[in-house]
Design goal:
This protein is an alpha/beta fold and 279 residues long. The chain has 12 helices and 9 strands. A hairpin with a 5-residue loop joins strand 4 and strand 5. The longest helix is centred in the middle third of the chain and has 20 residues. The two termini are 37 Å apart.
């Protein structure tokens, strides 16, 4: 943690030589952080104009058995190396490693019962979806509240859609639908769920999945709570009107720092225009 904080300051101050030297010195010291450290080493070298050694750092990550995020190289920062045949070969190998991991991945479901659980009662169900590149383990500690713990059965669903070495995403609508339907059916089959009070929510890619489920009517969703979601293109005016007729209501939380904030505002405006109850 101390090294990460110091490294962040070096990048902020544009001390890329010093940052690269630090990262080179700790590759063997932190074997569990090879992905982040080789990625940041490559980035520092790119900023220094050393494309050859930047690619060497990424290839070193592959030699040590890791792969990089699905979205790791979309930023403009990588423009100096993007046209290199060597970089193209590296990306091809990275995509192959993601595909190999995808073949072994499966949806996971963790159910948390409310405090003082009474099996004779029926409880509302909250389906919680992690963000892109996260797992349930990452997401669960922050996506809770006293009210959830007291009053709800909470289903933490981990997608099978591989984004990183240990993280997943919800961007494929067909797979998301299949997995959320499966999670919902398991929850209502095994636990005393009040099917008239099902809420879904999540962060970023999990917000995308929550909105897809809510407006796609995969199962009887009464409400959604989403934080900084990507807005699904599948939410057309017909879907909004149908959701309103079902009594769907929801809350969308975001920030000016989210580069999708205008999409989110447009979605809320469309919902309000249709007469939906949304905050």
């Amino acid at each position: 943690k101390e090294m990460r904080e110091h490294l962040g300051e070096l990048f902020k101050e544009k001390k890329y030589e010093e940052a690269a030297a630090l990262l080179e010195s700790v590759l063997d010291k932190y074997p569990d952080n090879i992905m982040a450290n080789t990625y940041n080493l490559a980035l520092a070298r790119t900023y220094l104009g050393d494309a050859d050694r930047a690619l060497g750092a990424l290839e070193e990550g592959h030699r040590r058995g890791i792969f990089y995020s699905l979205w790791a190289f979309t930023a403009q920062d990588w423009e100096p190396v993007r046209s290199s045949p060597r970089f193209e070969a590296f990306l091809k190998e990275n995509h192959a490693r993601i595909a190999k991991a995808q073949k072994k991945a499966s949806m996971k479901l963790e159910i948390v019962m409310p405090e003082g659980f009474d099996p004779a009662r029926k409880y509302p169900l909250f389906i919680a979806l992690h963000g892109g590149g996260e797992s349930t383990e990452d997401f669960k500690p922050s996506w809770t509240s006293p009210r959830l713990r007291r009053e709800f059965i909470t289903a933490y669903v981990q997608s099978s859609q591989v984004a990183t070495m240990k993280g997943f995403h919800w961007q494929d609508v067909a797979t998301t639908r299949k997995e959320l339907e499966k999670a919902y059916k398991r929850a209502i089959a095994e636990y005393p769920v009040d099917r008239d009070r099902v809420v879904v929510g999540g962060f970023s890619s999990g917000g995308f999945g929550s909105l897809v489920a809510s407006f796609g009517n995969f199962f009887p969703v009464r409400g959604f709570v989403v934080l900084c979601p990507e807005v699904p293109a599948t939410i057309d005016d017909e879907a909004i009107l149908a959701a309103k007729s079902r009594g769907l209501r929801g809350t969308l939380l975001t920030t000016e720092a989210d580069n999708r904030v205008e999409q989110q505002r447009t979605l809320i405006s469309r919902m309000e225009k249709a007469g939906m109850a949304v905050d």
